[in-house]
């Protein structure tokens, strides 16, 4: 791999992936439209972390501007992370925006790659939200897709579009289903960022539901590694779960976080929002076997690193 396109390069995972590629000696073209789904200042900080690297070219625009000839010139790998995230905001009129950014923009990208004389390898970021609330043992990639939010529906449809192009044309596209990624630069609307911020300010920690819901959390550097491995080893149309070191209940996570801050938080329980999965639990055996993926950062260490980053931002 010598040149890559990263869509959503100023986002949480995208900025970490861009930095990793640059460290690995890859020339990177980055595109980000700075959607205002959360504070744009956070994305600008992410971009500042990447810095003025001589091998990085940044384009501040939406994918819908379709400057594919410029963006894809000489590119052999595409990492497609640009999307409109978030379960809670995907209801009502906002659903049209989710369709636009998660489905239609992806289809435009696939068409543009297909038109190349030699299509690049494409790694598409999906989500465990396609499964909905998971039952029984660990969830593997053959489990039924039963999204419980409009956001999850758009991610499932995005996967189906990718599969159509892989089957019909052999387009080298693979998809990664992330299980709740966390770490430095995590979006401010996500739970860990919000919990740490509330604890640091001495505010009540707002928990949606009873705190017994469980998650499989993935440290951001592990999610980045999964992208690199998929680009190297995946076959067209393959889908992989990308998870962390274990499944854990939310209240147990809060116990770890409060221990790091050496305080006892004031918990405020509120009604859980529609579309929130009660359980996610990744079976990552396929990614281990096919890609060599193995999460390296345990939850306790990942939370410590996220807290260090948030404290640094607060001082800055």
Model description:
With 316 residues, the chain is an alpha/beta fold. It has one domain (3-182, 220-244, 279-296): 3-Layer(aba) Sandwich (Rossmann fold). Helices cover 41% and strands 17% of the residues. The chain is built from 10 helices and 13 strands. The strands form 4 sheets. Strands 3-2-1-4-5-6-11 form a 7-stranded parallel β-sheet, sandwiched between helices. Strands 7-10 form a two-stranded parallel ribbon. A two-stranded parallel sheet has the order 8-13. Helix 4 links the parallel strand 4 and strand 5 (121-127). Helix 1 (12-23) runs parallel beside helix 2, helix 1 packs across helix 7 (220-233) and helix 4 packs parallel to helix 5 (150-169). The protein is globular. The relative contact order is 0.14. The model has no long low-confidence stretch (mean pLDDT 95). Pfam families: Epimerase. Residues 4-243 form the NAD-dependent epimerase/dehydratase domain.
Low-confidence stretches: none
What is the CA-CA span between the terminal residues? 36 Å
In CATH terms, what is the architecture? Answer: 3-Layer(aba) Sandwich
State the total count of DSSP E strands: 13
Strand order of the largest sheet: 3-2-1-4-5-6-11
- Tally of helical runs: 10
Highest-level CATH class? Alpha Beta
Which structural class best describes the helix and strand composition?
alpha/beta
* Total domain modules: 1
Shape: globular
CATH homologous superfamily title: NAD(P)-binding Rossmann-like Domain
Helical residue percent band: 40-55%
User: How much of the sequence is in beta strands?
Assistant: 15-25%
Sketch the topology as an H/E string, one letter per element. EHEHEHEHEHEEHEEEHEEHEHH
At CATH level 3, the topology is: Rossmann fold
């Amino acid at each position: 791999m010598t040149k890559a396109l990263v869509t959503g390069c100023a986002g949480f995972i995208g900025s970490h992936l861009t930095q990793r590629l640059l460290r690995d000696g890859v020339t990177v073209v980055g595109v980000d439209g700075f959607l205002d789904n959360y504070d744009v200042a956070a994305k600008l900080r992410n971009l500042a972390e990447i810095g003025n690297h001589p091998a990085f070219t940044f384009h501040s625009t939406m994918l819908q501007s379709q400057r594919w000839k410029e963006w894809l010139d000489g590119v052999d790998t595409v990492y497609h992370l640009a999307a409109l995230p978030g379960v809670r905001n995907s209801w009502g009129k906002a659903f049209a925006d989710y369709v636009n950014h998660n489905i239609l923009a992806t289809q435009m990208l696939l068409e543009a790659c297909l038109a190349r004389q030699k299509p690049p390898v494409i790694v598409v970021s999906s989500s465990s939200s396609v499964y909905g609330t998971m039952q029984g043992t660990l969830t593997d990639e053959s489990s039924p897709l039963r999204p419980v939010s409009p956001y999850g529906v758009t991610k499932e449809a995005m996967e189906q579009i990718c599969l159509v192009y892989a089957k019909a044309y052999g387009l080298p596209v693979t998809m990664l289903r992330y299980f709740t990624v966390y770490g430095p630069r995590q979006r401010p609307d996500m739970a860990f960022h919000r919990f740490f911020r509330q604890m640091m300010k001495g505010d009540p920690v707002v928990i949606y539901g009873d705190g017994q819901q469980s998650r499989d959390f993935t440290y951001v550097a592990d999610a980045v590694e999964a992208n690199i491995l998929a680009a190297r080893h995946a076959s067209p149309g393959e889908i992989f779960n990308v998870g962390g070191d274990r499944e854990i209940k939310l209240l147990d996570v809060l116990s770890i976080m409060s221990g790091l801050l050496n305080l006892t938080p004031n918990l405020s329980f509120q009604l859980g929002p529609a579309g929130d999965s009660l359980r996610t639990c990744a079976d990552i055996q396929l990614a281990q076997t096919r890609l060599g993926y193995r999460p390296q950062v345990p939850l306790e260490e990942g939370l410590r690193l996220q807290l260090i980053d948030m404290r640094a931002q607060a001082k800055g």
